Design the sequence.
DNA sequence: TCAATAGTGTCTGTTAGACATTATGGA
DNA sequence: TCCATAATGTCTAACAGACACTATTGA
């Protein structure tokens, strides 16, 4: 499953057949390919670009055809930057906003799971940074996080967390966009590792 | 991969062949079985009991034999309570402490991944409660969490978090164990859902 | 001068962890 | 009486979010 930020909303790449509901792109791997390689090739073929970040989601056991020949689908989630996602997609494939993906039951659940996984990884892998150019303003970075997360963030808190994590360093360039005060450009430059969060939390129970 | 608390340490069930290094139990699913069913059957056959909690870890692409026939391993992690794990294991299978599992490269990495996943799920699924009897003292519960997590917790904080999450309710029974003041017995009785944690955190970056 | 955006200082409520204290039974 | 464990109250540092304010540009 491929995600991309486009026009201020998170989009997902779906196959739209002439009849029937939309579904996610898939492929049956050829011999000699590892799972991540197959997933990257599928991305290149359907979206015309390779994901900046990709991770395995889950394996699904499909209907088993006959004894001894198990059929398993392995789902991946990846993100593609806005410029890379502007290339040509495969025939029948289209970027649609995740809010209106129009996927049927099982595939809709996979999409939800993919979004959850991606949002959790946002704190541990440079997902958002792979979607931005090498230098960017902190407002651009925050907007990218908000787009991926699906909710808005507090500006001051966002910058404090960013500083505490030593993830970015300022360049000596500024950029003026339209009206207001110009913003300083930053680059991704992780320096330290935050020690793991302390304590235990008891959050939601899936019962 | 099956985990069980035994004698104050977290153990993992491994197959110990007569020669060569230990490895994790595995099975090639029969036709008509779903993935979770196969995993549960494997657990019952090797450990003599069904896991109280189980979840899929990851799929691994093995060597691909020939074009069109992909070979994929799907790893599961599950936990088995101490009494249930006292039953007879399959021939060649044995519970060993995770610190001395003696697994070879790839399987050692799977074990690490399984522990990470299980520890994350501890906050979202009643993993620890499935390993305890229906009523238990808060100290027993805390010791179970510490055993699963691999580190010690702060008693007062543990109880505050527990209360804030509305996970347990007291019974009107007490139990005296050896010397000190008797402990009140509690039962697992989740009442509420904690709303998701606020804000954004930028933790470790796997680069 | 006004509007819009960048960037920052301060305050407050929440919470994790440290520490201390009380409670209560067995040895 | 002493000791071990349960249970809880209080203090503090860290931090997220709210709010307000300054800074700096284009219209």
Sequence:
């Amino acid at each position: 499953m491929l995600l991309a930020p486009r026009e201020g909303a998170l989009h997902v790449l779906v196959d739209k057949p002439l009849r029937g509901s939309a579904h996610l792109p898939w492929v049956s791997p050829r011999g000699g390919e590892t799972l991540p390689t197959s997933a990257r090739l599928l991305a290149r073929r359907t979206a015309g670009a390779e994901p900046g970040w990709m991770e395995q989601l889950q394996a699904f056991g499909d209907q088993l055809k006959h004894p001894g020949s198990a059929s398993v689908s392995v789902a991946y989630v990846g993100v593609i930057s806005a410029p890379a996602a502007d290339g040509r997609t495969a025939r029948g494939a289209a970027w649609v906003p995740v809010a209106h993906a129009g996927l049927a039951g099982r595939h809709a659940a996979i999409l939800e799971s993919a979004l959850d996984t991606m949002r959790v990884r946002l704190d541990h892998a440079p997902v958002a940074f792979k979607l931005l150019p090498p230098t960017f303003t902190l407002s651009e970075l925050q907007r990218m996080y908000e787009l991926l997360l699906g909710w808005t963030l507090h500006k001051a808190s966002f910058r404090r967390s960013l500083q505490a994590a030593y993830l970015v360093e300022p360049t000596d360039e500024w950029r003026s966009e339209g009206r207001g005060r110009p913003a300083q450009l930053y680059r991704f430059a992780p320096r330290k590792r935050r020690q793991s969060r302390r304590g235990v939390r008891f959050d939601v129970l899936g019962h």
